[in-house]
Amino acid sequence: MPRVSQDHLDARRRQILDGARTCFARYGYEGATVRRLEEATGLSRGAIFHHFRDKESLFLALAEDDVLRMTEVVAAQGLVQVMRDLLSTRPAADGEPHNPANWLGTRLEVSRRLRTDPEFRTRWAERSQQLTVATRERLLRQREAGNLRDDVDVEVLTAYLELVLEGLVSHLAMGLPADDMDPVLDVVEETVRRHRRSG
Amino acid sequence: MPRVSQDHLDARRRQILDGARTCFARYGYEGATVRRLEEATGLSRGAIFHHFRDKESLFLALAEDDVLRMTEVVAAQGLVQVMRDLLSTRPAADGEPHNPANWLGTRLEVSRRLRTDPEFRTRWAERSQQLTVATRERLLRQREAGNLRDDVDVEVLTAYLELVLEGLVSHLAMGLPADDMDPVLDVVEETVRRHRRSG
């Protein structure tokens, strides 16, 4: 047996995550059967479950991966940018090219399972905390830079942004049109960013 | 057979709706069996389905009833007040007295079914439109009275408020704590109400 390099392992792991993302987004958690995961990743179940203990671990790794990338976007551009990314990367229809930055499918599944699966809720709590922390830190930096309104507590603004994010995910989950959402997100962004006085 | 007066019919209908509201809120749509509906309303299935064709019709009547009352609150106090009411009337735990103004249980079920049941989505679209219309009309009146910011289109502000409402319902559906939500809703209300300039 040749020794498998770390680079190779990482690349394989990435390949599995990318395929699984499409698969979960298209079929949902329950609908993403092992056979479909094999098709989507181009790998055998043996190879997939060599890297991930089971489907649940694979899904959590994927969701965690997304949270990590979201926190990067939050750190650089704020939580409203995450919302704009969600809007611009809706699940590709059959035949459309897959957008590897697509967060929505996984996010919808996370939201659904949070509502229906108390055990998942517990397991997810710690991970979702990372996004809250990143959002709060970004707001604190923005406040120091004088870009944030200073009449409302950063905790409150963090909760505000997370509430709107939840609304957006729910809106998309219900299949409601989101074409006119950009000016709404402008309002959200402006609410947080600048201190404004009564005119 | 004595002639049944309209008042009596209305009271009976109200009794069924009130009991069914508690029942759907506690057990969910699928879990609200006919037996449980009988217990919750104190009426036989014969009496219940004399007034409503089937469980689906009963649920829709209930949800419609809620939308009507919500539009009244919107007209008088705005959509943010509906959100505050949702926060203050969370489902009563076992043994707690039932709050007849409780909208959340039904609203959670509507949201869940909108996500999972395309047929329900179609049937609901027209009814939910009433709330949008009431919100828009309230905002237009507020604008005329000079209470509304005038740098953002009323359509955008309506969509903004509805997005936050969806976020709140989703937040509560996930069982997340909502104790600190009041100052967040203050931010939402203030965002819409007053025109503010950069400070």
Question: What is the secondary structure topology, with strand pairs?
Answer:
The structure is a homodimer of 199-residue chains.
Chain A: H1 6-31, H2 34-41, H3 45-51, H4 55-77, H5 79-88, H6 104-116, H7 118-144, H8 154-173, H9 182-193, E1 196-198
How is this structure best described in words?
Two copies of one chain form a homodimer. Chain A has 199 residues and is an all-alpha fold. Chain A is built from nine helices and one strand. In chain A, 37% of the residues are buried. Chains A and B meet through helix 6, helix 8, helix 9 and strand 1 of A and helix 6, helix 8, helix 9 and strand 1 of B. Strand 1 of chain A pairs antiparallel with strand 1 (196-198) of chain B, so a sheet runs across the interface.
